[in-house]
Design a protein that fits this description.
Layout (H helix, E strand, L loop, with lengths): L2 H10 L3 E5 L9 H12 L5 E4 L4 H10 L7 E4 L2 E4 L1 H10 L2 H14 L1
Parallel strand pairs: 1-2
Antiparallel strand pairs: 1-3, 3-4
């Protein structure tokens, strides 16, 4: 399986996927820490991929969705955006609902 297929499999494997530097417990950059904290605060389950554990994913993910920076957050296999976008969604009060909707759609698949 090539790297693009692996990334597609990853984003297809959970309703919400966070690509980040490090892990939610041990983030390795401030933006990843904020994104993980924001997603965690919703209480909705999400998956994560530590991009430092797979250099091919680290190198190829920006091309996969034409988004150059990390973290990257996907709902139901579609790019939502970076950490700033989910923080804004949380501030507007829509993040938790959107994550729940993504989870409900994922469970129906």
């Amino acid at each position: 399986m090539d790297v693009m297929d692996r990334i597609q499999h990853q984003v297809d494997s959970a309703a919400v996927v966070l690509y980040m530097k490090g892990t939610p417990q041990f983030p390795q950059c401030g933006f990843s820490a904020k994104a993980a904290q924001t997603l965690t605060s919703t209480g909705v389950e999400f998956a994560y991929v530590n991009i430092f554990e797979d250099q091919e994913v680290f190198q190829s993910l920006p091309t996969f969705a034409n988004w150059p920076t990390f973290p990257q957050i996907y709902f139901n296999s579609e790019l939502v955006g970076g950490g700033d976008i989910i923080v804004e969604m949380a501030e507007m009060g829509t993040l938790k609902d959107e994550m729940k909707k993504a989870s409900e759609k994922f469970d129906v698949k």
